[in-house]
Each structure stands twice: as C-alpha cells, then as structure tokens.
Design goal:
A 4-stranded antiparallel sheet has the order 4-5-7-6, with helices on one face. The protein is built from 9 helices and 7 strands; from the N terminus they run ααβααββαααββααββ. It has helices at 3-13, 17-29, 35-42, 46-58, 100-112, 118-141, 149-158, 179-184, 186-204; strands spanning 33-34, 62-67, 81-86, 163-167, 170-173, 209-213, 222-226. Helix 2 (17-29) packs across helix 4 (46-58). The radius of gyration is 21 Å and the shape is globular. It has 2 domains: 3-86, Arc Repressor Mutant, subunit A; 100-226, Muramoyl-pentapeptide Carboxypeptidase, domain 2 (2-Layer Sandwich). It is of the alpha+beta class.
Length: 237
C-alpha cells in the first residue's frame, strides 16, 4: 500500500460512526480496554466490537495485546483476554500532502542554534501571547463562571492535549500534540508548551490555574495545578 492509499484507508477507517466511537473510547481510557468493555461503551454486541477493534488494529490506529482479567470465574476465566490500546504511531491525513512537521523541525533547529537565547525567548513570548488569546476566547464561551478549571479542560481538549483529572488538584495531559517534535527538540517544545498553557491560563483570567513542567512518561511535559473552591467560598491549594 503506497502513501496515498494509506491516507485514504486511514480516513475511511474512522468514517464509520461505530468504529469511531470505539476508537475514541479506547483512546480516552488511558489503559488497555477489553472487547466486552468496549462493546458496552459503544452499545453494540461483542462480535461487532471485536470486528471493528481488529480492523482498527490492522490500520495501525490501535495495538492489541493479551492480559488476564481480574475477578473472572468459571470456564475459561484463566485464559488471557485480548485488549486494545491506542497506537503510538502518528498519522497525518492531508490531501494533497503537506510538510508542516518539516517546517516545525527547521524552526526548532533555528531556535536551538541561537547561542544568545533570544530566539527561544521570542518563541516563549509568542506562545504566551497566542495562549492568552486562546484563553480569552475560551473564557467568553465558558458557562462555568465559578472558576477556570472547566474552561481550561475544554480548551486543552479542543487543541489535542487530552486533559484528564489526575486528582482533585491537577489536570494532567495524556497527549502532546507536538510529540514527534519533542523527540528531537524536547527543551524547545516543552518551553513553548509551558508558555502557551500559561498564556491560556492568563487569558481565562482566574487565579486557580497554574501550569508547570512535570515530565511524566506517556504524557505531555506540562501539568496544570488547580485550586478548587470549597463551600465557604475560599480556595484550597
């Protein structure tokens, strides 16, 4: 299959609404998902879920493995069950082909090659300014006026960071939208990400959002610390 055929196959692979629901569920789960669980989430039968899940594996969008299911009893309970996770591979479906990643790599190299550090400072300033614009727009759209946590979560989800509540005080980011660039230019991209998210927090305009660097395997390098309002109206750290 050549590159053009692969693009068409990927695009059509998620065109089916049931398959898309399954893919989204597995992607957002953050842990391996079994066929029964996926079928229940998509409100379909197990055989149909298995068919679509395996089709997503064949397209490279999911990966499959096996694990023993805890708490199962009866015949076959000790047999490993097939489970699915989102593939670590990345796909860009653009027709005609574009090379935005190549442009980003060239720009990152230019920043790294500046010994004065002014290029990195300029990038951080631009990222914060853009983040502030994004945050202001999100604040205007948000119906939640009690704090910025929900506005921040929705905005980060819109831009591909896949936020989730690590606990009551933190939003962690399951995905880095710039993952391929991070592999080659980690310091530049992490600095840009931090400045961008600090700008978003500033644009939302509350005092309860504090993006900070917190590198974690399999996640974005930034985490957002929040402070939630208690019933008395004060804030908890």
């Amino acid at each position: 299959m050549d590159r053009d055929q692969q693009r068409v196959a990927l695009a059509s692979g998620l065109d089916d609404p049931v398959r898309r629901r399954l893919y989204d569920y597995v992607s957002q789960a953050g842990q391996p998902v079994g066929r029964d669980e996926a079928a229940a989430a998509a409100a379909i039968g197990r055989p149909l879920a298995a068919y679509h899940l395996d089709r997503l594996v064949s397209l490279g969008l999911l990966t499959a493995g096996y694990r023993r299911q805890a708490g199962r009893t009866g015949p076959g309970a000790g047999r490993p069950a097939k489970v699915y996770t989102r593939s670590r591979r990345e796909f860009a479906v653009t027709l005609p082909p574009r090379e935005y990643e190549l442009a980003a790599r060239l720009l990152a190299r230019a920043v790294e090659s500046d010994p004065s550090g002014s290029a990195l400072a300029g990038l951080e300033q631009a990222a914060r300014q853009l983040g502030t614009e994004i945050g202001r727009a999100a604040s205007q759209r948000s119906a939640d006026r009690r704090g910025g946590r929900e506005a921040m979560r929705a905005t980060l989800a819109e831009h591909g960071f896949e936020p989730f509540a690590a606990d009551e005080a933190h939003l962690a980011l399951r995905n880095c939208p710039f993952h391929k660039l991070v592999v080659r230019h980690r310091d530049v991209v992490c600095a840009m990400n931090l400045a961008l998210l600090r700008g978003v927090a500033a644009g939302i305009g509350t005092q309860d959002l504090h993006p900070a660097l917190h590198p974690t395997p399999g996640q974005c390098c930034v985490i957002v610390r929040t402070r939630l309002e208690n019933p008395m109206g004060s804030h908890d750290a």
